[in-house]
């Protein structure tokens, strides 16, 4: 749902991540009614997906292809469909092949959700492709 370009995935939300000098990445997203749970509210699963995608793209920007091993999401306040949001992520560190990241979803200056995650590089018998 989040991944890929419109050319190869017509259902993508087409997030366009920008990288910043500190290594963080951010993308704009408008909460779509197709992604609602309760009427008028963005589904928590979509919020989690956006946060995971931001952290994945943060690693992509550093030349790392990895899989989510652990994801912890904190929902701070509800997101209404139509809300204009920014999703961002940054790398916190890496140890023994495990990458630790954090991400947040914000409406203006207010964080509406945040996440931490651990990512692992898969064994060589698992090929990863993105696009």
TrEMBL record:
<dbReference type="InterPro" id="IPR052061">
    <property type="entry name" value="PTE-AB_protein"/>
</dbReference>
<dbReference type="Pfam" id="PF03061">
    <property type="entry name" value="4HBT"/>
</dbReference>
<dbReference type="InterPro" id="IPR006683">
    <property type="entry name" value="Thioestr_dom"/>
</dbReference>
<protein>
    <recommendedName>
        <fullName>Thioesterase domain-containing protein</fullName>
    </recommendedName>
</protein>
<dbReference type="GO" id="GO:0016289">
    <property type="term" value="F:acyl-CoA hydrolase activity"/>
</dbReference>
<dbReference type="InterPro" id="IPR029069">
    <property type="entry name" value="HotDog_dom_sf"/>
</dbReference>
<dbReference type="InterPro" id="IPR003736">
    <property type="entry name" value="PAAI_dom"/>
</dbReference>
<keyword id="KW-0378">Hydrolase</keyword>
<feature type="domain" description="Thioesterase">
    <location>
        <begin position="40"/>
        <end position="110"/>
    </location>
</feature>
């Amino acid at each position: 749902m989040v991944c890929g370009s419109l050319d190869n995935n017509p259902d993508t939300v087409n997030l366009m991540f920008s990288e910043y000098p500190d290594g963080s990445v951010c993308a704009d997203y408008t909460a779509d009614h197709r992604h609602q749970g309760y009427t008028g509210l963005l589904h928590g699963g979509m919020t989690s997906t956006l946060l995971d995608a931001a952290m994945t793209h943060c690693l992509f920007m550093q030349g790392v292809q990895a899989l989510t091993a652990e994801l912890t999401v904190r929902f701070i306040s509800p997101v209404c469909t139509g809300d204009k949001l920014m999703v961002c992520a940054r790398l916190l560190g890496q140890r023994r092949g495990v990458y630790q990241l954090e991400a947040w979803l914000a409406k203006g200056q207010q964080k509406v959700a945040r996440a931490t995650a651990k990512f692992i590089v898969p064994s060589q018998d698992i090929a990863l492709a993105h696009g």
